Amino acid sequence: QVTFVESGGGLVQPGGSLRLSCTASGSIWDIYRMAWYRQSPGNEREWVASVSNGASTNYANSVKGRFTISRDNAKNTVLLQMNSLKPEDTADYYCNTDRRYHALRSWGQGTQVTVSS
To answer: How far is residue 67's CA from residue 69's CA, in Å, rounded to a whole number?
Structure first.
């Protein structure tokens, strides 16, 4: 079963940018839609964005216009470019299949994003 390793998180000031990367242990070419999720303390994990094999994207309203998701099937990676970051974006970020279309795989360790001055 494919597993995911997320990286690229860190501490950034409000208005700053980060680029998250998700590397899969196996091929993702046959996964129609891949997604990023996030979970902040005391809250449930929420869907953030997803991308199809045809590069069709969807975003949560809270990140629309600020985040960009992309995928590279040849490299088995999914990226999340995050711009104009806000304190409310602070969370652990995870990638996985889009649960609206696929069964979820095992969750990775995630990557922590902290937006603070």
So the answer is: 7
pLDDT at 31: 87
Q: Which among 34, 11, 38, 25 is positioned nearest to 110, based on CA atoms?
A: 38
Q: What is the pLDDT, as a whole number, of residue 98? A: 94
Buried b (16+ CB within 10 A) or exposed e, 12-48: beeeeebebbbbbeeebeebebbbbbbeeeeeebebb
| 14-72 confidence digits (pLDDT tens) | 999 999 999 999 888 888 999 999 999 999 999 999 999 988 999 999 999 999 999 99
For the residues 11-15, what does the mean pLDDT come to?
98
Phi-psi domain of 76 (left: phi exceeds 0; alpha: psi -120 through 50; beta: other): left
